[in-house]
Structure formats: structure tokens, C-alpha cells
Amino acid sequence: MIWIAIMGLLWLSCFGFYAVSEKQIIKTRKSHYSFLTTYPKCTRFAAGIFLVNAMFLLGTQFSPSIGFVAVWVFLSPILFIFILKINNLKNMNI
User: Fold this and answer.
1) Eight-state DSSP code of residue 92
2) pTM of this prediction?
3) pLDDT tens figures, 43-52
4) What is the DSSP string of 3-57?
5) Domain extents for the chain?
6) Is residue 70 a contact partner of residue 51, using CB atoms and an 8 Å limit?
7) Which pLDDT value is given to residue 79?
């Protein structure tokens, strides 16, 4: 159960940082996530808190130093999936 919470927190953190990034904030204002752009600093702060919370949960499973490394190990595939989901990958005719 704790692993589902960790993955969910990491996903929310990635999405929070992505939604209020400089390149994406204009698109976010037009979507149904526009409430995130009202206070972008608060959204970034909340995403950071989610990331720290995930590190804390991993630190309780392992030691704190291994938990810190484990966050980045678990974050890598989540970021990869997130990037693939966000970008429109079309067949390129060469």
C-alpha cells in the first residue's frame, strides 16, 4: 500500500511541476486544471511537498540515504512515461 502512495505522490509531483512550467502554463490555463495556474508558486510548493513526502515514505521503508536514492530510481520511469504521455509521438516518414 505504501508503494502505491509513493508512486501516486511522485506522479502528482511531476504533474504539478509540469502544469505550471513556463512552456505549459498557457495550455494549462485553457484546460480543466486552470485552478493550478491561479497561484503557480503554491502549486510548485505543493509539488515539492509531495516529493519530500515520497522521500520520507521511502526513508521509512529503507534508511533515509537509500530512500533519497530510491526516489530518483523510481522517478526515472515515471518521468519517462510522463514524457511519452504528454508529447505527441507520431510516425515520422523519413
Assistant:
1) P
2) 0.74
3) 999 999 998 8
4) HHHHHHHHHHHHHHHHHTSTTTHHHHHHSTTGGGGTSHHHHHHHHHHHHHHHHHH
5) 20-73
6) no
7) 78
What does each C-alpha distance from 34 to 12, 22, 42 come to in angstroms?
A: 16, 14, 13
Residue identified by cell 519530500 is 52
61 grid coordinates? 521503508
Query: Residue 13 class from Cβ within 10 Å (0-12 exposed, 13-18 middle, 19+ buried)?
Result: buried
Residue type, position 73, single letter? V
Q: Which amino acid is at 9?
A: L
Query: Any idea which residue has 522517478 for its cell?
Result: 75
